[in-house]
Amino acid sequence: MTLSHGRTHLAIPGPSVMPDRVLQAMHRAAPNIYAGEVVDMMPGLIGGLKSVARTRHHAVIYVANGHGAWEAALSNTLAAGEKVLSLCTGRFGHGWHEMASALGVNTVIEEFGLKTPVDPSRVEELLRADITHELKAVLLTHVDTSTSILNDVEVVRAAIDAAGHPALLMVDCIASLGCDRFEMDAWGVDVAVAASQKGLMVPPGMGFVFFSDKAAAVRDKLPRVSRYWDWAPRAKPEIFYQYFGGTAPTHHLFGLREALKMIEEEGGVEKVWSRHAHLARAIWAAFDAWGAEGPLQMNVVDPMHRSNAVTSLQIGAPNGTALRNWTEQNTGVTLGIGLGMSTPDDPKGDGFFRLGHMGHLNAAMVMGALSAIQSGLTALDIPQGAGALSAAADVIAQA
Ligand SMILES: *Cc1c(COP(=O)(O)O)cnc(C)c1O
Q1: Three-state DSSP class for 293?
Q2: Whose CA is nearest to atom 6 of ligand 1?
Q3: Of 2-6, 154-158, 283-287, where does mean pLDDT reach its minimum?
Q4: How many A from CA of 238 to the centre of ligand 1?
Q5: Fewer beta carbons under 10 A from the terminal one: N or C of the chain?
Q6: Is 335 exposed, middle or buried (0-12, 13-18, 19+ CB in 10 A)?
Q7: What is the pLDDT of residues 11-55, one digit of tens each?
């Protein structure tokens, strides 16, 4: 017998849980792409995306995943042979950097480890040392989904400014958008990338790039921009198909419209951030209690440096894999694999897991996921501190 039948909960952390409303909005006959609703909804979608990213500048959509959005951002800002600085706090920082290298960009990696955020004084030092301004951009991952480190975008901007350096600040917000506070304009971000399947609650398949006028001017000076990734026609389309460089992702657009409407109905993205912050505190209260005895520990020690979208954990091999398998098979909750915490052939890799808490998530879903973990710890005889579920419930009671 298994107790997993019923609605499953995917907490891996992305793709995230899809709201029924989004699914229903997508469930329709193929729409016309030359006139009608799909064409008419575009200005509203672009406006909605900009309000979620807190920018008055430009937003474009690609039929792509997050990797596509990475490539799009790089393709519009850097020529082969130019140099960028990649600030890495986990696997995703490396991923963006590898994408840049493959485009012939000369990348300089600065590693900040897997436990603590980017140190702005080191960034300032590196930029001050670049007297001839060879570095054209700084690549930062707002939330690295592998380690669950939350980087402080504002202080990195301040470090770039303190060094008097003209490099663009480019930020990967794929995990954080719609979960952790992100203020593109107020924080002086030049380029931000995101995707549909995390905080925005839509299936994978759309990548988003937001860019400032300064970044647009850099694009205009590049000798060549690959046709598909070029953001200029997408940002100012003369005819509809230019929004997408081809056929629109019709059903995703209906899903996105519904998701943006849900964010509006909640009271705007600030309310969405507050919900995620509160739910994250409940989750961390449970992990603190479990971790008082036994092997389960959160990866990021300081709560100030933790994302509200995902929590990375260590529990010792083989407990991480065993717990994930147990909760999926017996409760219908799918936890995330550890990512970037060990090499693929390292047996210690079975000692990590992640809990995704992005997007469409309420207190009942959080308590359900935590209860599944509690049952798994007990069933697998993994030593643990007491009182985790009531600690989480106490935080939720402060709603
Ligand atoms: C998920 C994620 C990506 C990759 O997105 P894909 O859609 O899988 O290509 C990149 N960066 C971060 C921070 C992510 O969370």
Answers
A1: coil
A2: 66
A3: 2-6
A4: 31
A5: N
A6: buried
A7: 999 999 999 999 999 999 999 999 999 999 999 999 999 999 999
Instruction: Report CA(92)–ligand 1 centroid distance (Å).
Output: 7
**Beta strand pairing call for 143-144 and 83-88:** unpaired
What is the CATH code for 21-265? 3.40.640.10
Q: What is the domain class of 267-397 according to CATH?
A: alpha beta
**pTM, two decimal places:** 0.97
Q: Provide the residue count of the chain.
A: 399
Write out pLDDT tens, residues 243-299. Answer: 999 999 999 999 999 999 999 999 999 999 999 999 999 999 999 999 999 999 999
Binding pocket residue ranges, ligand 1, CB within 6 Å? 14, 65-67, 92, 141, 144-145, 172, 174-175, 195, 204
Question: Closest ligand 1 atom to the C-alpha of 175?
Answer: 15
- Cα–Cα distance, 173 to 190 (Å, whole number): 13
Residue with tokens 């499953």: 8
Kindly report, as residue ranges, where domains of CATH 3.40.640.10 are found in the chain: 21-265
Instruction: Tell how far the Cα of 197 is from the centroid of ligand 1, in angstroms.
Output: 9
